Amino acid sequence: MAGKTEHQDKTSSEKKTDDHAATRANVDRAAAQSALSMINQQKQNIVKRLHIPWWQGPLTGLYMAVLVVSHAAPMPYNSLLVGFACVGIFFMLRSYTSQPVWVSGWRNGKTRALSVTFIVVYLLHYFGSMWLFSRGVTWVIPVIAISIFVIAVIYSQIWLVVWRKDMEADDVR
């Protein structure tokens, strides 16, 4: 009989351990779900608070177009144009990053792929215009500058839409 009681005690003890583990798993699961819910709420708050001024896309396009045009300008104007564009980009980025909420274009997700694609497109425009200009095809410089301006404006709008969709997705990365 004593053996049976001992066996029952072990079973009861094992049952308590299993109940404790199950309770702990439920608490851990609930805590994880609560944490994920809080993260998703914070993501939604960021989406609502992010403010990108309407002029940022066109201004970025303007500065990038100026960089395209700069290599066709005679000295010292080419250096002045590059300086103007670089200083303008610096102050525009400084204004953007000093906001309470701002987002890097290099963040993980689809926005990084968009940013890399845009840079490749820009560099193709830039070096293509340099190459054509060196071959005496000067009329293409303003066309490429206007093209990169338009592409930058469109890119900035697409990037924002993709970023918002990424942030509004249910999955937490």
Write a brief structural summary.
The protein is mostly helical and 173 residues long. It is 80% helix and 0% strand.
Structural features, described:
With 173 residues, the protein is mainly α. It folds into two domains: 49 residues; 116 residues. Helices cover 80% and strands 0% of the residues. It has five helices and no strands. Helix 2 packs antiparallel against helix 3, helix 2 packs antiparallel against helix 5 and helix 4 runs antiparallel to helix 5. The protein starts with a helix and ends in a 5-residue tail after the last helix.
Q: How is the topology of this model organized?
A:
Elements: H1 2-49, H2 56-70, H3 77-97, H4 110-134, H5 140-168
Helix pairs in contact: 2-3, 2-5, 4-5
Structural class: mainly alpha
Number of H/I helices = 5
N- and C-termini, Cα separation: 58 Å
> Looking at the structure, what is the overall shape?
elongated
What's the main sheet like? none
Helix content: over 70%
Q: Taking Cα atoms only, what radius of gyration do you get, to the nearest Å? A: 29 Å
What's the helix-strand series?
HHHHH
Q: Count structural domains.
A: 2
Q: Mean pLDDT score, rounded?
A: 81
Low-pLDDT ranges: none
% residues in beta strands: under 5%
Q: What's the total number of strands?
A: 0
